Amino acid sequence: MSDPRTDDDLNRIIAEWCGWVRVMKSDGTIYWLSPTDYYHEIVGKVIKVYPNYCRDLNAVQGVVSTFKDGDLIRYVNVLWGVCTPNPSVSLIHVIEAKARQRAEALLKVIEEWKNKPPHHLEPELIGRNGNPPGDI
Q: Which residues are paired to 30 by β-bridges?
């Protein structure tokens, strides 16, 4: 079954977990700081500059590529479940998974790690002070 949340919801949750931080200026302008504190020019009142994990395979792979052994195996198992509700279905469904399916699997793994980020992530992919972004 597909995650009922919107692409924007999934993208924001994954981005925050990866260390993107939402900043609101006193004039109400909202922008996002990347995990490395790079910021984009503010255009209009709201800009979304974090990656589009639900549409960009490279964005999802950028996060998944930081996983090690057991974490990667867990992600692949969750992805298998997202792609194929029947475990006897061919592996090809996992190999051909769409970005949205991969983002859903990534989010499920992230939610399992809630309040306990995996130890192997690069510091810039973890929220400041080593905490998940929601705990900053």
A: 24, 46
